Description:
Elements: H1 2-9, E1 10-12, E2 19-21, H2 26-44, H3 50-64, E3 75-79, E4 86-89, E5 93-97, H4 98-103, H5 107-122, H6 125-146, H7 151-165, H8 170-186, H9 192-208, H10 223-237, H11 246-253, E6 257-258, E7 266-268, E8 271-274, E9 279-282, E10 288-291, E11 295-299, E12 305-312, H12 317-325, E13 330-332, E14 336-340, E15 343-352, E16 360-369, E17 372-381, H13 385-397, E18 400-401, H14 405-408, E19 413-419, E20 424-425, H15 426-432, H16 439-445, E21 454-455, E22 460-465
Parallel strand pairs: 3-5
Antiparallel strand pairs: 1-2, 4-5, 6-19, 7-8, 8-9, 9-18, 10-11, 11-12, 12-17, 13-15, 14-15, 15-16, 16-17, 19-22, 20-21
Amino acid sequence: MAGGLLVAACATNPATGRRQLNFYSEAQEIELGSQADREITAQLGLVDDPELQAYVADLGKRLAAKSERPHLPWTFRVVDDPVVNAFALPGGFIYVTRGILAHMRSEAELASVLGHEIGHVTAQHGVNQMSKQQLAVGGLMVGMVLAPEAGQLGQLAQAGLGLLFLKYGRDDERQADDLGLRYLVETGYETREMASMFRVLEGVGEIAGASRLPNWLSTHPEPAQRRERTSRLIAERGYAPGEVGGERFLRRTDGLVFGPDPREGYFQDGVFYHPELAFRAEFPRGWRRANEKSRVVALHADQIAQVELALSPARSAGEAAEAFVRQEGLTADRPRRTQVNGLPAETASFEVARQQGSSITGAATFVELGGRVFRLLAVATADRAASVRRELVAFLDGFAPLTDRRHLDVRPQRIALVELPRAMSFDEFLRAYPSEADPRVVALLNGVDDPASSIGRGSLLKRVQGARVGD
């Protein structure tokens, strides 16, 4: 039966003609992508630049029209994330970050990245990996029926398999590279710019260090290997020169926010400042922290405690607190009215029992500020809660209005184009047009390998304007 089901689930890869595992129809594939697109858009946010969004979407759709699946509802978005990254969802949903755009130097480089991600969709790599996940989880379910006591283990294994199988394999990545190269050729772009893009990604990894590789590289073959392989294929096939689109692309990215945007919150000396929402909050020092679009979190080094700050959809602190304590699985006290640094608030303590290990204890405080309700959540394992009590209380009591103009008025760094008035070396450019960024980063942004080499008059170079804010 299992063998028969596998045969039935095999489908033809639209891009390669080979058979591969696929439990999803095309309509289901599109619906999966559409649902995830809504979540990603809400979680990451989009760059507020309609012209840039339209520019990327137009280029992506021209490439997708040359693919094996031109009929898909192709969607291309620039997400507001400083990380160097690009990714695709099943059904034709493609994303590039403003972080990777800032490091590009031509339209052909952008086309090479979009083409690669289009290749993942046309070859159905996403639904293939999801089908493998579904098959593996099905095997776990059989084991859970035969041994019900393994249920808890089964749930943990499913989560792990989800993370494992949603990463593309090296063969998928090479196939996406090959498809992207095909789309570059068919749309008339310079193929050598794909190899150039790999050199950019290689440089990002070198500057960041091995422990901080960009997300786009985490599941891909080494960019140096990909650059060499692509250069070899281009030389062997003798592709004709194509369009680069350097100036056109650079003009589109002039003024692009570079790096983390402090207007959306930043940490400085253990304090989190949010200029747009005009608040500050004390976070435990030494904990691992993350500022996400929908929340700010910090995790204890031993993973025994966590704090989280997020907006509540409720209209008042009382309404938010009442809804919170009514949640299933919580044993909570009645909310009580209080004040946090002069702001109206409600707070409640609670406990969550667990089948295995220590229960979870915590407190939630809901604070009203500027017509919004903020939720501050502090939790710890019950057996270790006493050791972090002081830090959790300080977090819950550390929310306050932000009134200091030094923090309210901060601005992000931005890419600024400079048209050279005369020929000069890159070192001379740095002296004449200083950037508030590591010179190695500025060199990478401009594709400069030799700082002493001469750059012609009229060339467009990028500089980074504005001071970096935060830790």
